[in-house]
Structure formats: structure tokens, C-alpha cells
Amino acid sequence: MKRCGTAFLWVCFILAATCEVSAQGRGGRGAPQLPSTAKAAAPIDITGYWVSVITEDWRYRMLTPPKGDFVGLPLNPAARTAGNPWDPAKDEASGEQCRAYGAPGVMRLPGRIHVTWQDDQTLKLETDAGTQTRMLYFGTPQGEAGGWQGISQASWEYLPAPIVSTDGGRTSGSRPDPSGGSLKVVTTKLKPGYLRKNGAPYSANATLTEYFDRLNEPNGDTYLMITIMVEDPTYLNTPYLASAHFKKQADASGWNPMPCAAR
After folding, report:
1. Quick one: which of 59, 84, 94, 228 is 20 to 30 A from 40 by CA?
2. CA pair distance 70, 86, nearest whole angstrom
3. From CA 151, how far away is CA 141, in angstroms rounded?
4. Residue 238, class by beta-carbon neighbours within 10 Å (0-12 exposed, 13-18 middle, 19+ buried)?
């Protein structure tokens, strides 16, 4: 599908840039001294209020799909066996109506997010959909495993910038450029949940990798693009690739925290 191909190309581009920085900029002569805290070293600013822009997979994201409609998801037979009996009433009765609001699924739900710095080493991401809170740790990850949002390890991925040698001004190699890059977040130790509200499952063995990129348009609009990859040896044949887009808001207008809904 076109969506998966686009997300895959973004993942490949970011990984290629990361490898180049690692291979050529690590410890090399001319590499800049980056600030000691994640907040000070941020190559992009993703703080503030953002509203989701849903232009792809509309019927799967704005509406709860019918039972068994798993088109576009690389589910294996075990996942289909687990997902086909989906019953929202059963989830409500067991207090598990937030299954679709875990980290692998919540960023693609319609709504708004609010991003702030909890401290110099921790980003706090709140969603009004399901009233969820994600803590993105640049230092040693904290918190308890087994929650809807799991444990998230964050890092900055810097774009490569050329190193200009003193030998005739020629360009040689590259180094991390603190003026541009992405936020990488790897989330593990998740409570089992849904990739899609109709019961498409992911397991406790799932690993979520995200890249957050800020896009500034010539007309002044600012967008946040999140490239999503879910790997799950229990329920997925191949990695699930997707993306989510948000537009920057000037203030908290429209912010409306709502509880999780199973239906």
C-alpha cells in the first residue's frame, strides 16, 4: 500500500543518515561538543499543542472498523485467531477499554497531543484521546513495565553535516549537525493492546520504534510527522509500518481530554 511504502522510505532515510553519522562523525576531528542535557541538545522543538491531520486510512481511524477487518495489517494466523472474537462489551466489563490507546495505536487516533519537558532529560507527551500520558526518557528509562504506554527510551538523531578540512577547504566526511534531526523513541514492555480499535492485537513482546520529524511550511504552518514501526514476533508476520501527522496549534484551543472508548 502507498502508506506503508512512504513510511518505509522515511525509516530507510533516517536509518541511513544515522548510520552515516555513526560511521563518520563518532569521535572524529571537528565534531561539535553537544550540550549535556537532552533539552539543551534538541535539534528540533516539538513542544506545544498539536492536532491530528488524518488524510490516510480515514475509515480505520475516524470510525471503528467492523470486526475482522484487518486490511493493511501484517497479522499472522495467531493474531487473527485472537482478534476475530473481538467484543467491546467484554473489554468494558473487564476494565480494558483502553486497549486501542496504548503507545502502538494511540498516536493514530483522532485528537490532540500536548508535548512539554518534564525535566531536562524527559519529554512528556499527553493525548486528549483516552487521556493518556507518555514519558519519553533520554536518560535511564523509568516507570513500571506492563502499562499501556510501556517504557520509552528517547534519543536525538542528528542530520549529517559536512566537515570542512583545512587542506584547501575541501569537504571530507560528515559530523552530527545539532541544527537538524529527529527524535527517536523506542518503546518496550507494553501491556498487550490493539493496533486498531476492532481488536487487531499486539502482544507484550511488541517493540515500537518511532521517529518524530518537524516540518516547517513556507506559509508558516508547522507539522509533526511521526513514522511508526511495530515489530511483534507473536502476532506480526512483518513489521507494521505507518505514520501519523499533526499540525501545530498556537494554544490549547480544542484540547478536550476524553476517557478511553472501546467502541
Report:
1. 228
2. 12
3. 7
4. exposed
